[in-house]
Amino acid sequence: MAIIDLANPTRFMRLTDRLLPWLVGATVVSMAIGLYLALYVSPEDYQQGATVKIMYIHVPFAWLSMFAYTVMAIASFGTLVWKHPLSDVSAKAAAPIGAAFTFLCLVTGSLWGKPMWGTWWVWDARLTSVLVLFIMYLGIIALWRTIEDPIRAGKAVAVLTLVGYINIPIIKFSVNWWNTLHQPASVVRMDGPSMPPSILIPLLVNALAFTLLFMTLHFIAMRSEILRRRIRTLRQHEAAGAAGVARATTSVQATASAHSPKTNKAPVEAPS
Amino acid sequence: MLPDLGNHPGFILASYAVSLVLIGGLIAWIRYDFRHQKSLLAELEARRLRRRSAAKDPKA
Amino acid sequence: MRALTSLFVREMQLAIRIGGGVWMGVLFFLCVIVVVPFGIGPDLNLLSRIGPAILWIGALLASLLGLDRLFQADRDDGSLDLLLMGETPLELVVFVKCLAHWAASGLPLVISAPVFALFLNMDPIATAALTVTLVAGTPALTLIGAIGAALTVSLRRGGLLLAILVLPLTIPVLIFGVSASNAALNLTLPFTTPFAILCALTLISAVVEPYAAATALRFASD
Questions:
Q1: Domain ranges of chain C
Q2: Which end of chain B is more exposed for a tag (fewer CB within 10 A), N or C?
Q3: What SS3 string covers A202-223?
Q4: Is A49:A92 a contact under the CB 8 Å cutoff?
Q5: Do C220 and A132 touch (CB under 8 A)?
Q6: Are residues B46 and A127 in contact, defined by beta-carbon separation less than 8 angstroms?
Q7: Which chains share 3+ C-beta pairs under 8 angstroms with A?
Q8: For position A268, what pLDDT does the model report?
Q9: Does any CB of chain A come closer than 8 Å to the CB of residue B43?
Q10: SS3 state of residue A45
Q11: Distance between CA atoms of C44 and C61, rounded to whole angstroms?
Q12: CB crowding C166-183: b at 16 or more within 10 Å, else e
């Protein structure tokens, strides 16, 4: 199973066909364990009480919002540098899933913040950065939807994704700076290393479970996208073929004009 | 059997419920999309096959 | 070098000749500044405190306004194809176009900002600091916006999408621009730290953004 095998969309379809049942199984099992540990086994936090249970889903969502963007950035690099046929499929499939997890991170953060801070929203550095990330996701999805040709859209989105990825640390840094300027003390701190294992282990299991869920959904969405492109090429061939037949039957001397730029430009990617 | 939810059961339940609904919706949408594309492709391929076999006869 | 100079001259001539494009941005800037007191009330103390923020946001919106035509006009009349085929590197061409665009639309904003600061009751030191930060920061806005302009070059109505794509990327510039101009008012904070970071952001944009915009333009044309 070398990476080169994955380059071919047909091979990718065959491989994921075999892989997906296992992935679904692993997702279900790990999520059942993670949620059981989070809801029934893990103790209450001495500061936050039972609301710490929200953290067991909030933190995995935050992790996935970054993970999905990283997947998109790597895929965009593949699109721009190697023109890999699968990479823009991967980038396109990851965008709505990543946006959904980012949105969930915001919602659960807000629901966690209301009992902790007393308001639905604070302009806390971390929440604000996630909000900016969410807007970036929506911009990327908007760009995918406005450019009709998938190959061309893939290239434009790849540039945007990579520029955004370079900017994420800068945005994070400036939001932190801005936040410390205006809000001297943060209200709740969840410091990683000082977390007791009784909280850390359910959190890690949940993070793994949601990552597996993301991978499952991402693979299925990639498969749909490959099929969608296949359908698109078939339809174009059909239309071009129909046009060709019409031309041939109506005018015999049309051979010179038969090579219109439209028919020449039919997408090359047509694995069958 | 509900787990012990402490002082703010509403917020915890709400966050899990929202996540459940949204992820459920996402899974449903992705599955529907895959099935839909698959059936479209099958239909298209069947049509092509039919046309090809129909076109072959008069040519031959 | 001569090609780039003549490109710069051409861009400037186009910007100045075509229907008062230079003043349109300044006028929009003025409108934003005028609208804000109607929204938050005529309290001069409050206005002078948030004045730098209002002026920065106004400048940000105004400099995004004219960006959608940055490459689109060239695409429409075919000169973009010539620039793509020419032997001057496209990155430099993009950089020079941004420079000309900034000189024609960003610089007027910077010059008019001290006048508009009078409406907001800002004291001379704050006004001076604001003008300096605008000089340092608005080129970054134009350069970042150039990516959006390159990505939406082939779209009929790219203006709104451009703003959506570009605004998240301009947040750091806004944060450090406003912090630096506020620091001049508030003596507990140093002015130089945020100002130096603002300059660094502009320099980073000057290196990264022409490459990205040129890449996007090449892809949009094949």
A1: 2-221
A2: N
A3: HHHHHHHHHHHHHHHHHHHHHH
A4: no
A5: no
A6: no
A7: B, C
A8: 42
A9: no
A10: strand
A11: 23
A12: bbbbbbbbbbbbbbbbbb
Q: Nearest CA to C128 among C19, C24, C52?
A: C52
How far is the alpha carbon of C169 from chain A, nearest alpha carbon, in Å? Answer: 7
pLDDT at position A267: 43
Average confidence score pLDDT of chain C: 86
Whether C102 and C10 have beta carbons less than 8 Å apart is answered as: no
Alpha carbon distances (Å) from C181 to A69, C43, C119:
34, 20, 17
Give the separation between CA A124 and CA B12, rounded to whole angstroms.
Answer: 21
CA angle C82–C21–C97, rounded 5-degree value: 35
Tokens of A170: 């800068």
As to burial, measured by CB atoms within 10 angstroms (0-12 exposed, 13-18 middle, 19+ buried), residue A238 is middle
What are the structure tokens assigned to C196, written together?
């130096």
Mean pLDDT of chain A: 80
CA distance B17 to chain A (A): 10
Looking at residue A7, what is its pLDDT? 61
Q: Which two tokens stand for residue A239?
A: 């239309």
Separation between Cα atoms, residue A122 and residue A135, nearest integer Å? 17
Q: Name the residue among A129, A111, A112 with its Cα closest to residue A190.
A: A112
Asked if residues C11 and C97 have their Cβ atoms less than 8 Å apart, the reply is: yes
Assess contact for C219 and A155: CB atoms under 8 A: yes
| Contacts of range A183-187, beta carbons closer than 8 Å, 24 or more positions apart | A183/A123, A183/A124, A186/A124, A186/A125, A187/A116, A187/A117, A187/A122
- The chain C residues in contact with chain A (CB within 8 A) are 147, 150-152, 154-155, 161, 164-165, 167-169, 171-172, 175-176, 179, 189, 194, 197, 201, 204, 208-209, 212, 215-216, 219-220
From chain B, the residues in CB contact with A96 under 8 A are: 26
**pLDDT tens for residues A147-186?**
888 888 888 999 999 999 988 888 888 888 887 766 544 4
> Hey, what are A192's tokens?
């990683």
Burial label for A240, CB within 10 Å (0-12, 13-18, 19+), is middle
Query: What's the CA dihedral at C175, C177, C179, C180 to 10 degrees?
Result: 160
